[in-house]
User: What shape does this take?
Amino acid sequence: MPETFFDQFTKRAPLSLADELMDKVIPVKHNQAFSKLVGFGDLMAAAQKLLRPADKSRLNLGEGLGIRPPLKWAGGKRWLVPHLKPIWDKHKERRLVEPFSGGLAVALGLLPGDALLSDINPHAINFYRWLKRGLTNKLAMQNDEDFYYQCRTRFNELIKADKATTREAAELFYYLNRTGYNGLCRFNKGGEFNVPFGRYKSINYELYTSEFKSYKAIFANWQFVVGDFEAVDVRPGDFLYADPPYDVEFTQYAKEVFAWEDQVRLAEWLAKHPGPVVLSNQATKRIVALYKKLGFKTRLLDAPRRISCTGDRTRAVEVLATRGV
Ligand SMILES: C[S@@+](CC[C@H](N)C(=O)[O-])C[C@H]1O[C@@H](n2cnc3c(N)ncnc32)[C@H](O)[C@@H]1O
Assistant: This one.
């Protein structure tokens, strides 16, 4: 049976967007217009035109959460996009610089024309670089425990052999991210990736990996860099959004723990930037005081998670610290 337009569409567009559009647009009357579309940008533009304002806000199309990120990422800030968007809109001609780009939820939410995205995690950045080059999946991914541990061993062999920037490493990293426990990215003291098998009931690898090509066009003018935030080559006119690991004990994303000294080092580094700056963090007393002291405006937001380690169900509070916006 020939592939229908809807099949092609689902393959081309990131999943959540495809679902939302199919739901809303297809039963209406505009499918003709969609069948002529070739690129993802066109698709977004057409969707914007076709949907009524009320639908647009319901679907958050382009004005809300943007494009779904390709990786699962601890501390992803997709939920913050609606708060960041009004700030960003005043500066959207600028380059977006994210020294803690992580899972890319913010860049994919704001969709800047020009961006410098940096993170200390070399594997995520390697994966994005491969997506930018047009990565298509060749690994026969299986949601199977033995297969997972074989892939994990192979991934660690590549790291040891200094081959962590290869295409094979990028594909394995993606597979481990989708299949491992909670999409975590943890390494032991010896530098080996040690996240256990995730035990998900099912994982639709085919659907996810068919989305890879959507990112190629989006990433075309974005630069991906690995390193500590202080090494990021920021220009005076850049819009800087920093989302460091939360100010809590035992936070560990990549190899390094982000200590209080790093939080202070970051705040002082951000305070030196002459252009607009936005910082998000857990609203601990010392973080709020630190940024206020450095002349930032602070706003507290309810985060969609709860602190439960002490058994209570206190709502977590996020702080947005801004300067020059
Ligand atoms: C809260 S996450 C960022 C999440 C991202 N905003 C998103 O929405 O997906 C924090 C990130 O900081 C990175 N990181 C930790 N220490 C770092 C450092 N010293 N310099 C740069 N990045 C660092 C981690 O690898 C992690 O991806």
